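In response to reviewer comment 3 from the previous cycle, which asked for concrete evidence that the modeling workflow produces usable outputs, we include below a single protein chain processed end to end. The sequence was submitted unchanged, and the resulting structure tokens are shown without manual editing.
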Amino acid sequence: MNLKLFRTSSVPEIALLIVFVIYIIFPISTPEIMIPMVDSPLGYVTIFIITISLFIYTTPLLGILYIFVAYELLRRSSAHSVVDQSHLVNDTIRTQYMPTNMPKPMTTQSAKDAEMDRMNIPHETTLEEEIVEMRAPIGKSDPVHYSESSFKPVADKISGASMFYGLP
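The workflow returned the following structure tokens.
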């Protein structure tokens, strides 16, 4: 291991390196207060400015490691809206942010069908749909009538003929 890199680093840089490694390794969730700040355009710009400044003013190792930290921070802070009846507060849906809080997947087909029936409410036919169904000519045309004719087409046999036969 090259210790020369750590000899040129200051104590705050080494401490920041240790904090970054701990944040990447352990599943530390973002505090609820910070999530709206991180998951916003201003938060993205701030993370980008911090990344550039780490590359300019500190060691490249710290800048590269911060790219992974920024990715994890954005991934852990991104809003995952999950509809769950237990999280309804005043007829509004609370947003859950960590993917670990998502409901467990259903295993049986009957449970999946019941969930789909709950999400897909029955569709009522509107007045416009009734009028279009009643008046539209699509699919309600008269049956096809073939007319008899005395005309009989004549075709010569052309078997064995070639398009290039007889050309100079």
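The longest helix spans residues 60-77. We consider this sufficient to address the reviewer's concern, and the full set will be provided in the supplementary archive.
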